[in-house]
UniProtKB/TrEMBL annotation:
<dbReference type="Pfam" id="PF14076">
    <property type="entry name" value="DUF4258"/>
</dbReference>
<dbReference type="InterPro" id="IPR025354">
    <property type="entry name" value="DUF4258"/>
</dbReference>
<protein>
    <recommendedName>
        <fullName>DUF4258 domain-containing protein</fullName>
    </recommendedName>
</protein>
């Protein structure tokens, strides 16, 4: 998980269980290719454990890397 994602979790009062819930029960709504690195990132839409809509942006680089998270 990036420092940016951790900062956003704090800002939006999200917890790791929320991120897990979004990834495990949500849906990939789109993928994008980074113009600089050419890596593919995935935007996952779901809900937090408290029922708030949110998105997780992640990429796979030997393992899942959470780039950012935010409430909608």
């Amino acid at each position: 998980m990036t420092h940016h994602a951790l900062d956003e979790m704090i800002t939006d009062d999200l917890h790791i269980r929320d991120i897990e819930n979004i990834i495990l029960n949500g849906s990939i709504i789109r993928s994008e290719q980074d113009a600089k690195t050419l890596e593919i990132k995935y935007i996952v839409y779901g809900v937090s454990c408290d029922g708030f809509e949110a998105e997780v942006v992640a990429k796979i680089k030997n393992q899942l890397v959470i780039i950012t998270v935010y409430l909608l």
